[in-house]
Amino acid sequence: MAADTAPRNRRKPAEPVLEHFYTLKKAAERLGLNDPDDPEDKTGVDWLRRGVNRKDGTPFPHHRMANQLMFSDSDLAVIAEMQRNKVDGRSKPRRSRRRPNSTTRSVTTTH
């Protein structure tokens, strides 16, 4: 096929869509990581900041605008999916609390 007879049904690139962006604090509230009524609660904000700055593994998706961390709706959806059913590295498996069976006790005999 010659270059001048190339098919003309090529798709146009997708138009950029402006999403809603959240500041660090609002993103933490949107994910339900801190109490929106307690202005001193920084748990979710710190967790998001550590996720953005992590060196090992995949950092959280984010944008930096005007020297602020910003998160779009799709960024928050990806973060939620990354953390879905993830076990905290500090947690340990539960210890079994079974008692030894009384019929399996060893009996010592003396001769």
Structural write-up:
By secondary structure, the chain is α+β, with helices and mostly antiparallel strands. It has a domain of 65 residues. 25% of the residues lie in helices and 10% in strands. The protein contains three helices and three strands; from the N terminus they run E-H-H-E-E-H. Strands 1-3-2 form a three-stranded antiparallel sheet. A hairpin with a 2-residue loop joins strand 2 and strand 3. The longest helix has 11 residues. The radius of gyration is 27 Å and the shape is elongated.
Query: What is the average per-residue confidence, as pLDDT, rounded to a whole number?
Result: 82
Strand content: 5-15%
User: Which residue ranges are poorly predicted, with pLDDT under 50 across at least 5 consecutive positions?
Assistant: none
What is the distance, rounded to the nearest whole angstrom, between the alpha carbons of the first and last residues? Answer: 100 Å
Spatial shape = elongated
- What is the rounded Rg? 27 Å
How many helices does DSSP assign?
3
Strand order, largest beta sheet: 1-3-2
Helical content class: 25-40%
Query: Could you tell me the number of beta strands?
Result: 3
